[in-house]
Records
---
Amino acid sequence: MSGVKLVYFNGRGKAELIRLALAYIGLEFEDVYLKEKSEVEKLRSDGHLLFQQLPLLEIDGKRIVQSGAILRYLARRGGIYGNSNDESTRIDELFEGTRDFYGPLLGMVFRPEEDVLKDAKEKVLPRYLPAFNKVLEETGSGYLVGKSLTIADLGLIETLLVLVEYLGDQILTGYPQLQSFYKNMTSDEKIASFLLGPHRHPKNDQTYVDTVKRILY
């Protein structure tokens, strides 16, 4: 295999954070979009999808599945996974928290948008915004762990980007640490470049939903 390839659908889903991580650690990559059911079936029959799921990252002569495994691989390779076992453990803890925070948003467009956003405002924001604001207040560095960006920070900014996109930045009112975090992360040169670049995907739309359903169901 030559080059780095991320195999997924032409949308955000579970691949967008991988795209952000690849861009942040400076790895050029190609988005490979699946469009037909036969393409996924071939990947499965060739044994490339161990658990029959996407995304799939082709890198360094290997194929990696499971989004969490892919992201940790990239974090280790890019030096954004902490400087000690204790730091890596804390990063894991907070990173998994960002995935729980982001999880309900994966239903966007697959469920009525108003239902997803209603659940987010009533159940998700009150649970996670105070928690992450508190962590940032305790570290005092502007980052979730230590004094530099880690994969946990990328996981949090991905979630906040989607929430602000749909609900506006007023959702961060009353959470000063998160307001500063959002401003600093979106001003970061590498993140800002990704957000304006070709690998950043727009909101999932009905075309994306129809493609995913046609291929997987």
---
Amino acid sequence: MEGCIFCKIVNGEIPSNKLYEDDKVYAFYDINPEAPTHFLVIPKDHIESANALNEKNVDIISHIFMVINKLVVDLGISDKGYRIVNNCGEDGGQTVNHLHFHVLGGRSLQWPPG
């Protein structure tokens, strides 16, 4: 989608600190990390938010979670724990209208988050 910052990252128009990439998803480190380990996983296809999931695109969610599983093991945060966050809509704190999952770990995370 034109103007989408995450689409521009996927297309290489905006630099990122890439962690992982395959034909379906792109993972990169957050530029303003909230934990020692903080990365995002996004679908390469533009999906605006969790509200835009449907029968044609919902399979991307299982793929994203399998990639997250691989990455947390690779980064050594799987045993102690981590948090996966998806913000949906304005009141949910979504600031980029492209489906994405934050993965945070490497420290004790408090609840409620805010």
